[in-house]
Design a protein that fits this description.
Belongs to the two pore domain potassium channel (TC 1.A.1.8) family. The protein has helices at about 1-45, 55-70, 75-90, 100-105, 105-120, 130-180, 185-205, 210-220, 225-255, 260-275, 280-285, 290-305, 315-325, 340, 345-380. It has a domain at about 15-180 and about 275-380: Orthogonal Bundle (Helix Hairpins), CATH 1.10.287. With about 400 residues, the protein is an all-alpha fold.
C-alpha cells in the first residue's frame, strides 16, 4: 500500500502544481500569441505597401539639389547655409521618405512595434503609414493594452509575494540578531524553562482516552461532584472531537476518489485563482526606499549589458533608455540599431514595468496617507473649540 500510495501522491502534487501555474502561464502565453499575430499582420500590411512619391517629395529633391549647387569652398558660407536653409528644408521632410518598408516592417521589426503598442511605450520611430494599418493599430491597442495590464497585475501578485516574504524574513532575522545581542545567559535560560513548561502543559492538556479519564477521576474524589462531572464532560468532548477528525478525512478521501467531483474541485480552485488576481498586490507593505533601490539595481544591470550590442550607447545613455522604457514614457530620442536583439529583453521589460508599477502603487498609498493626515490636521485646526459654561 505504501508503494502504491507514493506514485499517487506524486501525481496529485504534480496536478496541484500544474493547476497553480496554469492561470499565470495562460496569461503570458496569450500575450505572446497576441504579439506574434500582430507581428504577422503588420508585416503583411505595412511591409508590402507601395512607395508612392508625391509632389512634396519632388519639391524637396529640387530644393536639395539647388542648395547643393550653391555649396562653395568657403566653410563659413556653407555653415551659414546649413544653419538657415538646409536645416529648414530637412525640417519639412517626412521621415517616411527615407524608410524602406521591407526593411523596417519585417517580422522582428513588426514584433518590436507590437511590443511598443501594448506596453504603451510608443517610441515614435516606427508607426503605421497606411490607413488600414492605422485602423488596425487602434483596434490592436484596444485589446492589447488591457491584456498587458492583466499580465502585469498577475505578475505583480507574484513579485509582491516574493518581496513581502523576503522582507518579512529579513525583519525576523534582524529581530533574532537583536534579541540574541540583548539577551543574557540567565534570562535566556529562564525563557527556555518557561517555554518547556508551556509545552509540557500543552502535552498534558491533550485529549485522553475514556479509561485515562476515569483513572484521573479516582484521584479527584475529594473534589465536589459537580466539578468532577464538568471536567469529565469536557474531556469526553475533546476526545470525541479528536475521533471525528479521521472520519472527515476518510470522507474527503472518498469524495476525492470520485473523478468527476475531484475535477470539479480543481476547476473551482482555478476559478478562485483567477478571482484572486491583484489581491496580493494590495496587501504589499514594504518601504518605498527599498523599492527605489530595487529599481536602481534592476536598471543598472540592464544598462551594463545593453551597450554590448548597441554601440551608440554608453552606460548613462542605456540607463536613461531603460528608465524611459520601463516608465512607459518613450520619447523616442534614443533609437535602437538592433531591435531584434532587444526583443530578447521583452521579459526584462515586463518584469521591470511591474517593479516600477509596484513602486508607483506604494508611492500612491503613501500620498493618500499623507493627504489624509493633512486634511485631518486642517479640519482639527478649523473646528471651533467648545466653550464650557459654568452651571
Amino acid at each position: 500500500l505504501a508503494t502504491t500510495s507514493q506514485p499517487l501522491r506524486g501525481k496529485t502534487t504534480c496536478k496541484k502544481i500544474f493547476w497553480a501555474v496554469f492561470p499565470h502561464a495562460c496569461f503570458i502565453l496569450s500575450l505572446v500569441i497576441y504579439a506574434f499575430l500582430g507581428a504577422l499582420m503588420f508585416s503583411h500590411i505595412e511591409g508590402n505597401r507601395e512607395v508612392t512619391l508625391n509632389e512634396e517629395y519632388r519639391i524637396f529633391l529640387q530644393n536639395l539639389t539647388y542648395l547643393a549647387r550653391k555649396l562653395t569652398d568657403n566653410v563659413t558660407e556653407n555653415e551659414k547655409m546649413f544653419k538657415n536653409d538646409i536645416r529648414e528644408l530637412f525640417n519639412t521632410a517626412d521621415p517616411v521618405w527615407f524608410i524602406i518598408p521591407e526593411d523596417r516592417w519585417n517580422f522582428f521589426g513588426s514584433l518590436f512595434f507590437c511590443c511598443t503598442v501594448f506596453t504603451t511605450v510608443g517610441y515614435g520611430n516606427t508607426y503605421p503609414v497606411t490607413r488600414m494599418g492605422k485602423y488596425l493599430c487602434m483596434l490592436y491597442a484596444l485589446f492589447g493594452i488591457p491584456l498587458m495590464f492583466l499580465v502585469l497585475t498577475d505578475m505583480g501578485d507574484i513579485l509582491a509575494t516574493l518581496l513581502s516574504k523576503s522582507y518579512n524574513e529579513f525583519r525576523k532575522l534582524q529581530s533574532k540578531i537583536l534579541a540574541s545581542e540583548l539577551c543574557s545567559g540567565s534570562t535566556c535560560s529562564k525563557r527556555s524553562e518557561l517555554k518547556s513548561r508551556a509545552q509540557s502543559k500543552i502535552v498534558i492538556n491533550e485529549p485522553l482516552t475514556i479509561m485515562e479519564v476515569l483513572r484521573s477521576q479516582s484521584g479527584a474524589k475529594r473534589r465536589p461532584v459537580k466539578y468532577r462531572n464538568v471536567k469529565l464532560f469536557e474531556m469526553l468532548i475533546a476526545r470525541e472531537s479528536e475521533n471525528t477528525q479521521p472520519a472527515r478525512n476518510k470522507s474527503m478521501e472518498r469524495w476525492s476518489s470520485c473523478p468527476e467531483l475531484a475535477r470539479g474541485k480543481t476547476v473551482s480552485r482555478v476559478i478562485e485563482n483567477f478571482d484572486k488576481i491583484g489581491k496580493e498586490l494590495e496587501k504589499l507593505d514594504v518601504p518605498i526606499v527599498l523599492m527605489v533601490l530595487v529599481i536602481f539595481v534592476y536598471i543598472s544591470c540592464a544598462a551594463a549589458i545593453l551597450p554590448n550590442w548597441e554601440r551608440n550607447m554608453d552606460f548613462q545613455e542605456a540607463f536613461y533608455f531603460c528608465f524611459i522604457t520601463l516608465t512607459t514614457i518613450g520619447f523616442g530620442d534614443t533609437k535602437l540599431e538592433h531591435p531584434k536583439f532587444f526583443l530578447f529583453f521583452s521579459l526584462y521589460i515586463m518584469i521591470g514595468m511591474e517593479i516600477v508599477f509596484i513602486a508607483f502603487k506604494l508611492g500612491q498609498d503613501r500620498l493618500i496617507v499623507l493627504y489624509k493626515k493633512v486634511i485631518s490636521f486642517c479640519a482639527e485646526k478649523k473646528m471651533p473649540s467648545k466653550k464650557i459654561y459654568p452651571k
